[in-house]
Design a protein that fits this description.
6 helices, mainly alpha
């Protein structure tokens, strides 16, 4: 899918990509080994997306949308639940019945989160911010995703400034581990 454009277009594209990964995982039978590779790709995308949102989207929501603090806190809490489930899924064999339960937990949490963002948060952000600001946020989100961790780190800070300071280093370590192990590369 094509990335680019303002923050809303960029994040919506991410949402569609993750939904496609959900469908691909569900199309395979329980225990199928390709589900691990797809779950790793899903985890990478979700972690990078969440980190970028926490660094740039939610601070903008707090600043520009009335009641944005509560909205951002709710979204960050959603991320924390997903990240915990992703961490458990990461350590789970596809042969374990727990894999399917954890995957469905992630899918359910993410689907609810996406619906809330697309139906509630994004329209309010578009109304509150000019196009230039939305474009700048899109650029920041894309840059942040390139530097973000690729593995769940539930104990990592999720608000600025610490998340902006620590995420690039953690991301570098994760990307080196991924390169060495081949994690995140489809067969």
């Amino acid at each position: 899918m094509a990335h680019g454009g303002d923050v809303i277009a960029e994040l919506t594209t991410d949402h569609r990509e993750v939904e496609t990964l959900f469908q691909r995982i569900q199309s395979l039978p329980s225990g199928h080994q390709d589900r691990r590779k797809l779950a790793d790709e899903m985890t990478i995308e979700l972690v990078r997306h969440s980190v970028a949102e926490e660094q740039y989207l939610y601070p903008a929501v707090r600043k520009h949308i009335e009641g944005g603090g509560a909205m951002a806190d709710k979204e960050i809490a959603d991320h924390a639940r997903v990240e915990q489930a992703l961490k458990q899924l990461d350590g789970c064999s596809v042969d374990d019945p727990e894999f399917d339960r954890l995957f469905m937990t992630v899918k359910s949490e993410v689907t609810s989160h996406v619906e809330d963002e697309e139906n509630n948060l994004f329209p309010k952000l578009r109304q509150a911010c000019g196009q230039d600001m939305l474009d700048q946020l899109g650029d920041k989100i894309r840059t942040a995703k390139k530097m973000a961790p690729t593995r769940p780190h539930p104990a990592a800070p999720d608000t600025p400034p610490l998340n902006k300071l620590l995420a690039p280093g953690t991301g570098l370590v994760d990307r080196v581990r991924d390169f060495v192990t081949g994690r995140g590369r489809s067969a």
